[in-house]
Amino acid sequence: MKTDTTIRITRTQYRVFAEATKSVGLALNLSSFKRMENCWGGYSPWTLLVCGDARKDEPEWQERALITLAASINTTRLRSCGAGRPELDWSALEDHEIYPFVVWHEIGHRVDNFDHWLIGIKDVEILTECRRRISFVNELLADRYAWSQVRPGESIPLSENGKRLQERAAESLTYLEKHAPRLPFPCRSLAAGQYLDVPEYMLDGHQRAAFIGPEVSRKLVQQRAGYHRKRIAEGYRTLY
Question: By Cβ atoms counted within 10 A, which residue in 99, 112, 151, 228 is the most buried?
C-alpha cells in the first residue's frame, strides 16, 4: 500500500534494524529529518561512543561507526525524490518497505561501495575522474543493494533519471571497477542483543532509551542526559 502519510519508526523496528546494522559492525542511532539536514538516513565512518551494555550503571565504552535513521519519514516527500535518483525509482516503494529500504541503503554504503577517499590512486587524472563519478555510482550501488534486500529477485524500477542515464551508469561503474578501491569489508560484528553496543546518543533521555528496552539503567540515562544538557548550555551543537 502507498499512502500520503508520515510513518514513524517503532521500538520493535528499531531493535530489528539495530541487529541488522550491528551484523556489519555499525551501531544504529535515531535523529530527525531536519537535524540530519533533510536526509532520512546516513552512514558515517566517523566513530562515536557506543555503550557496551546499557543495563549497567557504569558500562564500558568503545568508539564505533554508525548508521543514523530519521525517526519519522514523510512517504510522499520520499517518493517524490524517486524520479531524480541515479537509477532506482523510490516511488515504487510501498509504505511498509520504506524503512527497511532506507536501512539497507545505508548498510549498502558500507558493504557495497567504492572507497570515497580513493586511497592509493597516484595518477592525478584518474583520481580526478574517479572523484567526478564516485558519488553517483555509490548512490546507485546503495540503491541496488537495498532493492535486492527488500524485493529480492525483482527487476529494478528505473527512475526517469535512470532511464536517461543507463549508459552513463554502466560506463561510470566500469571505470571505477577498473581504477578505484572498494571499501574493505566491515570489521567484526558488534554484539547481538538489544542492550549491547548501543550508541551513546540513544541514552540521552528516557524517550530515546525506551527504543532500547525497559532494562536500560536509569542512572546511566540520567547521567548521559545531564551531560548533553550541559554541552547544549555551553553552546555545542549536535546533529543528533
Answer: 99
